[in-house]
Design goal:
By secondary structure, the chain is α/β, with parallel strands linked by helices. The chain has nine helices and nine strands. The chain has one domain (7-194): 3-Layer(aba) Sandwich (Rossmann fold), CATH 3.40.50.
């Protein structure tokens, strides 16, 4: 029996004018595994994730030879401030998602939401003094997005460049948090980023995407040490080393 949680074979996406945006993309993901999709902006990474979760923009047409999702998917979006409703207090958003997805009563959902606040190192006083997204920092809003995704109890977590808009210190905190939560909860993950250094920290396998196509895929160690494609080699060479200090 196939134990893979996610199988996508020959996914193709087209815009209204018929231009092909994603070309014959095939992916698979096993339990507890982390796949990084790396490539420059506009290479089709985000559209691929949105196709997987069923949130393609209007006007995008898709074909797929085979699609199999064995479990629940949830997604952490790139920009927390545009992904969260600015007129909807964050703790109430979290409680409502838990109530809907986990089929809990209001009091039980509130108790579960407090556990997510603690688990993600968010201010516990949000439960009593709720706040709007604009009243929180970027890092806190990103943690709220992660909490909302985890409240769906996913088997597969899709992360669309969740650290891009954050400063480097908060980036590391969010990456460490995602890594710890994956170890604790056991979900598989696809992590989309244009930063190969970030992917190398989180992912066991890496798929390199360019102009809508996956041009190279393999174990992280193979991609970093012996890239077969010239574009992959450029990505590896573009990672800046930490300079030595006298």
């Amino acid at each position: 029996m196939d134990s893979r949680l996610l199988v996508i074979e020959n996914l193709n996406l087209y815009n209204r004018s018929g231009t092909q945006l994603v070309k014959n993309v095939s992916l698979s993901l096993g339990p507890g595994e982390t796949l990084g999709i790396v490539g420059e902006s506009g290479s089709g990474k985000t559209l691929t994730l949105k196709s997987i979760i069923g949130l393609l923009p209007a006007g995008i047409r898709e074909t797929c030879e085979h699609r199999e999702i064995n479990g629940r998917c949830a997604m952490v979006f790139q920009s927390p401030l545009t992904s969260l409703d600015p007129l909807y207090p964050v703790f109430r958003q979290l409680v409502d998602v838990i109530e809907l997805q986990q089929k809990l009563g209001r009091r039980e959902a509130e108790d579960a939401a407090k556990q997510y606040l603690e688990q993600l190192s968010l201010p516990m006083d949000l439960a009593e003094k709720d706040r709007y997204p604009g009243e929180l920092s970027g890092g806190q809003c990103q943690r709220i997005l992660i909490a909302l995704a985890l409240a769906c109890r996913p088997d597969v977590l899709l992360c669309d460049e969740p650290t891009t808009a954050l400063d480097v210190t908060v980036q590391k905190q969010v990456m460490d948090l995602i890594r710890r939560l994956q170890q604790e909860l056991g979900f598989a993950m696809i992590f989309v980023t244009h930063n190969l250094a970030v992917a190398s920290q989180l992912c066991s396998r890496i798929a390199v995407m360019k102009q809508g196509e996956i041009i190279e895929t393999g174990r992280k160690e193979k991609i970093l040490r012996d890239p077969a494609n010239d574009y992959t080699r450029e990505l590896v060479d573009s990672v800046l080393p930490v300079p030595e200090v006298d």
